[in-house]
Structures are given as C-alpha cells and as structure tokens.
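Illustration 12: Saccharopine dehydrogenase NADP binding domain-containing protein.
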Amino acid sequence: MPATDLGGRKYGIVVVGASGFTGTLISTYIAANLPTDLKWAITGRSQARLDKLAAKLRQDYPDRVQPELEVVSPDDAKTLGEVIGKAKVCISIVLYHEDGEKVVRACIEQRTDYVDSAAVPNLFKEWIEKYHQQAQENGVALIHSCGVMSAEMDLFAIHGAEQIARKWSAKMGSMTLRAEDQGANVSGGTMRTMLSFAGAGPKAMAAAGDPSFLTPVPYTKPIQAQSGSHKHPILGLLASSSPTADQARALINRTWGLLGGPEGSWGPNFQYNEYERAPSYLGAVGQRFRCYIIVTMLSLVQYPWFKNLLMRSAPESGAGPTEEQRKAMPFAAAAFIEADPAVKENRGKGCLINFSYKDGAYPLSALITSQAAATLLYDRHLSAGIKGGCLTAGVLGPDFVERVKQGGLEIETTMIEN
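Figure caption equivalent — predicted structure in token form:
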C-alpha cells in the first residue's frame, strides 16, 4: 500500500531516541538513503543533543527534507502520544526495559506502525501477552527484534524460502547459520539491555530458549543441534559457542508460527540452528570456553553487587564503538538452508546464502531497522494475511529483503544439489 494511502499525517517516520548511539546511526542512514522528500522527525529528551544531530544532518545531506525536532520524554504519555500520532511509522530506539513499553502502547493507541531492535525474548513475551490482541484489532504492525543478530535470521529465511520454492517448489528443512566473531565492542544501550535480560535469573534465561517460547503455534519438532564442534559439508568447521543461539531460535520460531506453523510457507520441518565459525578444532575449544564464561557471568547478574560491578565498567548510555572500531569488524554471516528432506526428491538440495556489510554490525542494524520502517511506509504487504500484532521482521516478506539489499547489504546466493 503506498504511503499516501496511510492517512494524512505530518510525518512518514518518527525516530524516538534519535540522539542516542544507535538512534544517531539510524537517523544518519535515513538521511543518506531514504527518499529525499521524506517528511520525518527525530525525538529525544535533550534539545541540545537533537540540535547537534540536526546540524550534522543538515551539513552532510543539505539536498533532502530535514527532520523536524520533537523534544519529548517517554514518561510524558500525553506528549509522546501526540508526537507518535503525527507519524505513519515509529522507530523506537530507547532503553527497552525502561521506556520500550511506553512507546509500544502509544503506537497502538495512535494506530502508528512500529519498528524496534529489542531482541529480548522475555520482554517480547511480556509485550505479546499485553498488546498483541489490541494491536491486531487496531491494525498496527509492531515489528520487534529488527536488528543484527535478530532480524538477520528472518532475512535469511525469507530469501531462502523464496529461492527454494522458486527452484524446486519445495519448503524449507533445516536452516544452519554460521556467525562470525563481531568482537566485544558494544554500546551502552546494548549492555544495559543484556543486563536487564540476565537480571531475570538463569531460570528465565533458560525458559527463553524453549523453541515454543514465543510461538503462536506450538513447535513440536525435536531440535537436532550439534554440540561442541563439527564440520558442516557446506559451511565448514563450526562451534556451538553462540551464547544467544537458543534465544535466536525462539525469535525466528515466532515468525514460523505467525506464518502458519506446520501449514505455513516455511513448512512443518523448518528448524533453526546457530553456530560460530571455528578457525580450528583447538580454536573451537577456546570459543566454547569463552561462551561458558559469558553465560556464567550473565547468570551472576541476578545479584545486585555483580550487576553494579559490570555497570561501572560499561559504556555510558548513548556511547558505543567508534567508526574505526566498527569498520575494523565488517559484518559477515552465512546460512545453508536445505529443501525439506521429508520429500524424497528434495534430498541433497539446498541454498547457501552469504551476507556481508563492510561498515560493521551497528550500521547494519541501522540499515535493517530503517528499511523495515520504509517497507511499512511504502510497501506494506504483510505476509499470510497479517494485519497487525506483535510481529517480527519475517512477516515483511520479499519486499523487505529487496529493500535491505538495495540499501547496501550484499547478498550472495548459491543453489546446491547433491
């Protein structure tokens, strides 16, 4: 549906939390890449920080419509609602455990579509229970977890499902993702989000790894994941050392369920497993040890003294890796998606997909989030007849993949047989 059919609102997009670290990257990406006649706004608590960001955008991108500035605190529900009600799509880049729910609620009330990068399964589940039905009834699409290491799985799956269906008229079987080491440099907001998730305790973290944790349709297929290290015939040597692999599965399984579960376009035998590239078998042991240390530290965050200790060493909120640090760690990931092997003719067939982005993971998050908002604004054709609700990037469909590709993500696809 074209943006002009979405109602006579002042703004196409409003970025809430624009002057923070990721919010600044998103605002810069919008200015550099979305249509120059887009009417948009940036919001935050500080007039001075918004003025500084606006001046930089005006200097670097003088040929486009400049964003209007809206000073608002998420605690001011009335003003927040008024600002969000002026826009067709809201991008929320706030501290989700503190202010995220306030933005979600305002978007539902104002019937404004929404995108965030809150890849926290426990928080997502809470919002689903509180707001999914109301968002459905209001026809509001709430696209959650739309950043790196959350939306990228959906991008792989959307693209892979389309390629496999086109080539062999098949549905998907197992999807194996190979992640690359992205380094230890995280933003202050990311660190605080991680600590809020871990602060719920080991039991809550383990519950978030249940394959059915977020699904509207129970996921009953046994998980066939490899532990330790193993050599994949296409992806090479892999280590089961990703601390968030189980939570990533919970997120992508929500997409599988939203699209119809066993009867949907991804099929009854879809399964997601995530690993890290291992340089050697000895290196895989080191990666597993690192993963163990991370998980152990996160389990201790439930104790205030340890959480306070980590917070003292964390970057300030609004701070993050420098441009040099980001570019020193370009983003790369690959996935092999097999055609459903339950059908004899499909066996040995699959799709290898490589993603790469030279500017690094945080700028890629800005790209994905911004293009998700643009998809809602310009190409709002949600999959499986979905009208609204607490959703994932996977329901945005092939239009979203194409926008991300045109926006700068390099996608290389190889169809494999035998």
